[in-house]
Amino acid sequence: MRLRKLGCKGGIHSLRGKLTLANVALLALGIVAATAVSVMAMRYYLLDQIDSELAKSRETFSSSGLSMQMIDDLSTLAIVRERFLHQDDGAARPDQILSVVDTHGDAVSLGDFTPSALQKDLADAVDDPRALAADPEPHDIRVRGDSYRATATRLTDGTYIVFATSTEAVHKGIAKAVRLDLAIGSLLLVLLAVVTLFSVRRRMRPLEDMVETSSAIAEGDLTRRVPSSRDATLEVEQLRTALNAMLHQVESAHRTRERSAGQLRRFVADASHELRTPLSAIRGYLQLYDQGMLQDPDERKRAWGRVMAEADRMGRLVDELLTLARLDQQPELRFRNVDLTRLVRDAAEDLRVQQPGRPISVDADGALLVHADEAGLRQVLGNLVGNVRTHTPAEVPVRLGVERAYGAVRLCVADDGPGLAEEDAARVFDRFFRAGGGAGSGLGLAIVQGVVQAHGGRVTVRTAPGEGLAVTVMLPSRT
Prior knowledge:
The protein is of the alpha+beta class. It folds into 4 domains: 7-63 and 168-203; 65-166, Beta-Lactamase (2-Layer Sandwich); 234-323, Signal transduction histidine kinase, dimerisation/phosphotransfer (DHp) domain (Helix Hairpins, Orthogonal Bundle), CATH 1.10.287.130; 334-476, Histidine kinase-like ATPase, C-terminal domain (Heat Shock Protein 90), CATH 3.30.565.10. Helices cover 56% and strands 15% of the residues. The protein has 13 helices and 11 strands. The chain has helices at 15-64, 68-73, 78-85, 117-125, 129-134, 168-203, 205-218, 234-290, 297-328, 340-354, 374-391, 422-425, 444-454, and strands at 96-101, 139-143, 146-154, 160-166, 335-339, 360-363, 369-373, 398-405, 408-415, 458-463, 469-476. The strands form 3 sheets. Strands 6-8-9-11-10 form a 5-stranded mixed beta sheet, covered by helices on one side. A 4-stranded antiparallel beta sheet has the order 1-4-3-2. The longest helix has 57 residues, at 234-290.
C-alpha cells in the first residue's frame, strides 16, 4: 500500500507547521520582552526628567525660607503669581499646577487670589501634604482623571506649596510607541512565518523524497534510492546515506532470499528425483521377487546385487545430504594445527591405489600448517580427488599442489580432462548439478564449498572445454 501524507484535524501535526509556530512564538516572546524593556526605560527616563524639574522647583522654595506673606508682598515672585493666576477652570488641562494648602490639606488663597477649582482638586488629590513634603520622591496622583507627578514643600509659616506636572504626554507617547512596536512586531511575525514556511519546505524536500522512495519500495520497486539534494543539511544528508545503504541491504537480502528460495526448490526437486531412482529400482526387484519371477539363482543373485548397490547409492546420498545440512547449520569444527602437505600426499596415495595407471604429480615441499578441522580437510581432498576419478578417463594426468600465497595457504587439484563449458562452470557448486548428466550425486563440490567456507576460506574453479579443470582452495594460514 502506498504511503500517504497524513492530515489530522484539531491541531498542527506537521513538522513544518510546528517549526514555523515555534519560530513565530519565540520571536513574539522576544518582541514582547524588547517592547516591555524599551517602554519601561522610556517611562523611567521621561518621568525622571519630570521629577528633576519638580525637585528643582521644590528646592528653590525650600531654600528661600519664604512665608505666605512674603510671597504675596515680593514683586520678585511675579512669575509665581502669574502661574497661580492662569490656573483657571478652562477646558484645556495645564501641564503644571501649583496650589497652596494648609496643614489640613485644604487649598487656601494666595493674597487676593482665591484658589481655582483645579487647584482645589489638586489639594483634594493630595491626601497628606505633610507626608508628600517629607518624601524626597514625587508621587503619582490623578486630577480630574489625568495623571500627574506631584511633590510639596513646607513654608516657614506652616503652609505647603504643592507642585504637580502632567504625565499625560508621557503616557500618550508610551502608548504610541507600544502601538508602533506591536505593529512592526506583527509585520515581522508574518514575514518570519512566511520565510520559515518556505525555508522549511525547501529543507524538508529530502524527507519528502524519502517518503516517495519508501512508497515506491513498498509497491515493489526495490531499485529506488533517495536522490541527493543541493541544499540538504548535514543531518539530512547523513540520514539519506544511511537510508540508501539500508535499502541496498534490503534489496540484496530480497534478491538473496529469492535466489535461495529458487535453489531450495531445485534442491528439493533434485533430491526427490535422486532418491526416487534407487527406490524405484529396489521396489522393482522386490516386486519381481515377490511375484516369483526370479526362479533362476543367477537372476536372484544379480537382482540382489542390484538392490544392494542401489541401497548403497541411496545411503551415500543421504549421508551427503546430512553433511550439507550440518554445514548449513554452521557446526562447531574441531580446529587444530594440521599439516596440509601430509593430507595432500595421503590423497595422492589413495588415488594411486584406486587407479594405478593414472599419472599423478604432487607439488608440496615441507610442512604447511593450517588451523583447521582435519576430518573436514580430508573430506575436501577426498571429494576433489573423487571428482577427478569419476569424471575423467583413468589415463588423464592429475596434479595436486599446496603452497603459501598472499598470507594464506593455496591448495590446487587440477586435471587435463575434457573440462567444462562456461555455463556449466558457473553452476559447478550447485547441489545435484552434474555436467552433461554424468555419474555421481552432484553433491561433491557443494560439500567442498561448504567445508571451505566453514573454515573461513574460499574455493574457485578454472576450466574451459578441452583444457581440463582446476579447483583452487584458499585457506587461512596458521598464525
